[in-house]
Automatic annotation (TrEMBL):
Function (record text): ATP-binding RNA helicase involved in the biogenesis of 60S ribosomal subunits and is required for the normal formation of 25S and 5.8S rRNAs.
Source organism phylogeny: Eukaryota, Fungi, Dikarya, Ascomycota, Pezizomycotina
PROSITE patterns assigned: HELICASE_ATP_BIND_1, HELICASE_CTER, Q_MOTIF
Protein name according to UniProt: RNA helicase
Family the entry assigns: Belongs to the DEAD box helicase family. DDX56/DBP9 subfamily.
Catalytic activity: ATP + H2O = ADP + phosphate + H(+)
Location (main, coarse): nucleus
Localization per Swiss-Prot or TrEMBL: Nucleus
Domain of life: Eukaryota
GO MF terms, alphabetically ordered: ATP binding; hydrolase activity; RNA binding; RNA helicase activity
Residues annotated as domain DEAD-box RNA helicase Q: 24-52
Length: 606
């Protein structure tokens, strides 16, 4: 280990840069030609700001701590210089050794980083061996993979520590250490694991820390792992038209369901969408509810097997699915802005300070929060770091409980200079608990959280604007919402959850064994199949003409954000039909026969 940690004794900033001042090319960064081929194959034309700044420093052998916004290309900013160094070293010394360790907080991220390493080194594949230690393979397989001393090992701190403990992983000849999402690794409870990694590091390892925010956790890691690092704080000037447009709708608890039905059935959101909800049950409630209208979606949560989760993200990125419903339980535990931050922070600092001492540690008493988390997969994370590609909209069906988490959720859209939209549904306090069947506790503080979000975004020059749905017009859809919600009972949700878990476990096993041999078959496994335990009401899958706006959805879809011009009706069609029948002197029975819900010729608008 390099030195004892004193969290107050943090090395001073060496470089500080802000602004997107220059554009260069990857070739001018002096990267190996084989890497340039790999970069070109990824269709990367110019380096992003963080790549422009960090790559030369890393190639110079400097320790780097870079803070750059989500989606700004941090992954390539550390992978490329590492690959370059490996290729360079191999020209003079072909001895195989593990020279690079990349630590990430979640398995999903590990897989993503592994794929990026493979992609960038595809023209030098015989010279670079990388493994992802978070893959669920037996210890024996893992040992044999590590016995080959792969050049790059990608792992969560827990996995790395485990393999160091069993002597399967040797860091004796390590030259580069990367900690990605550095602001997150400590809050995931990896303190002890990082301690073990730090103890095993040889002298002179180059450390690169990547983070979207510079928190006290990052400062702690910087003090522990870095030698006089170059600190990059990068603020990119936003090009007009780029970035996330942020909107918020204040509505009742049940109206969330009404709006989500209207949004997807009338295709008010075009393109791929990630819907964030508060917990796992909520994922299934919403999926079953949308199924009632024939709207397909797939689910991501910590309960699903890791292979399924990775597969869902891959398929979503390929465009197989349009809607993912994700729950982000780590943040639901309120571990960020819940006022207990300082206390947790003190504990973290004390824990990490211990990393530098040789004194035996007090046995760790897991907090209530940690115990709760432990039931789920600790190494799961969706709103952080995962590179969902081409996401048009992030829909916060349930608002997160902190502004930090909001920032990371909306960072799943408008990546790499694209545009995107974030729409958040917020329950005002006077409407909390007004619709018990759809009520959840986390919405209690929606307004407080929204105030924090608005303040935080304003500080960064961003505005969260109201999205003015005309709720009176949306009302026409309410009875359909009621029908659909009634079918999604608690029992239906429980059954769906169990069924999906069982199916995904089976798929996951199959995925692991079978698809290693037949990678081409992967696409046959879909994750957005119907769960079907809820009562099926096939008429709900179609939107009858009389519910549609007179002018169609053109006015809404044509960039007319801020108003949903659904046709204003004075009288609904059922009542009109009844009145007309009455006027003609027809009896009740005839009128009921003409009920459009039972007689209309369904015409799908989708
Ligand atoms: N130079 C580039 N040109 C074009 N696209 C790029 C470039 N660099 C990265 N990208 C793309 O931008 C997206 C975001 O990159 P990446 O995941 O590395 O961002 P990040 O900063 O690590 O985000 P997060 O903080 O959310 O983890 C990826 O899809 C990546 O392929």
């Amino acid at each position: 280990m390099k030195r004892k940690l004193d969290s107050n004794d943090v090395p001073t900033t060496a470089v500080e840069i802000a602004g997107n001042d220059e554009k260069s090319s990857f070739a001018s960064l002096g990267l190996d030609p084989r890497l340039l081929q790999g970069i070109a194959q990824q269709n990367f034309t110019t380096p992003t700001l963080v790549q422009n700044k960090a790559i030369p420093l890393a190639l110079d052998g400097r320790d780097v701590l870079a803070r750059a916004k989500t989606g700004s290309g941090k992954t390539a900013a550390y992978i490329l210089p590492i690959l370059h160094s490996i290729l360079k070293r191999k020209q003079s010394s072909p001895t195989q050794c593990t020279s690079s360790l990349i630590l990430v907080p979640t398995r999903e991220l590990a897989e993503q980083v592994f794929k990026a390493v493979e992609a960038f080194s595809s023209f030098a594949a015989k010279d670079v061996r990388a493994i992802n230690l978070t893959q669920k393979v037996s210890d024996a397989v893992q040992r044999s993979l590590l016995a080959d001393s792969p050049d790059i090992v990608i792992a969560t701190p827990a996995r790395a520590a485990l393999n160091l403990g069993s002597s399967s992983l040797s860091l004796e000849r390590l030259a580069h250490l990367v900690i990605d999402e550095a602001d997150l690794v400590l809050s995931y409870g990896y303190n002890e694991d990082l301690q073990n990694v730090a103890k095993s590091l040889p002298k002179g390892v180059q450390t690169i820390l990547m983070s979207a925010t510079l928190t006290s956790e990052v400062e702690i890691l910087k003090g522990l792992f870095c030698r006089d690092p170059a600190v990059l704080q990068l603020e990119e000037a936003e090009v007009e038209g780029e970035g996330v447009s942020q909107y918020v709708v204040k509505c009742g608890e049940d109206e969330k369901f009404l709006l989500v039905y209207v949004i997807f059935k009338l295709k008010l959101v075009k393109g791929k969408c990630i819907i964030f909800v508060a917990d796992i049950d909520r994922c299934y409630r919403l999926k079953l509810y949308l199924e009632q209208f024939g709207t397909k979606s797939c689910i991501l949560n910590s309960e699903l097997p890791v292979n399924s989760r990775i597969h869902v993200v891959e398929e979503f990125n390929k465009g197989v699915y349009d809607i993912i419903i994700a729950s982000d339980e780590h943040e639901i535990l309120g571990d960020e802005d819940d006022g207990k931050d300082e206390e947790a922070q003190d504990k973290l600092q004390a824990d990490v300070a211990n990393l530098g001492s040789d004194a035996p540690e007090e046995p760790d008493q897991p907090s209530k929060k940690k115990r709760k988390l432990a039931k789920k997969d600790k190494e799961y994370g969706i709103s952080r770091g995962i590179d969902f590609k081409n996401v048009a909209c992030v829909l916060n069906f349930d608002l997160p409980t902190s502004s930090k988490s909001y920032t990371h959720r909306i960072g799943r859209t408008a990546r790499a200079g694209q545009t995107g939209m974030a729409l958040s549904l917020v329950v005002p306090s006077e409407l909390y608990r007004k619709h018990k069947p759809t009520s959840i506790e986390s919405t209690k503080d929606d307004e407080k959280v929204l105030a924090k979000i608005t303040k935080h975004q304003k500080k960064n020059g961003k505005e969260v604007k109201p999205y003015n749905f005309d709720m009176k017009q949306v009302e026409a859809f309410r009875y359909r919402m009621g029908d659909a919600l009634r079918a999604v009972t608690r029992i239906a949700i429980r059954e769906a959850r169990t069924r999906e878990l069982r199916q995904e476990l089976m798929k996951s096993d199959k995925l692991k064994r079978h698809f290693e041999e037949n990678p081409g078959d992967l696409h046959h496994l879909r994750h957005d199949g119907e769960l079907r335990p809820a009562r099926v009401q096939s008429h709900l899958k179609h939107v009858p003409d009389y519910l549609l706006p007179r002018e169609g959805t053109k006015g809404i879809a044509g960039g007319n954000v801020g108003f949903v011009g659904i046709r204003k009706t004075t009288e609904n069609r059922i009542r009109k039909a009844r009145l007309a029948n009455k006027a003609k002197g027809r009896g009740k029975i005839v009128a009921r026969k003409k009920d459009p819900l039972k007689t209309f010729k369904a015409k799908s608008r989708t």
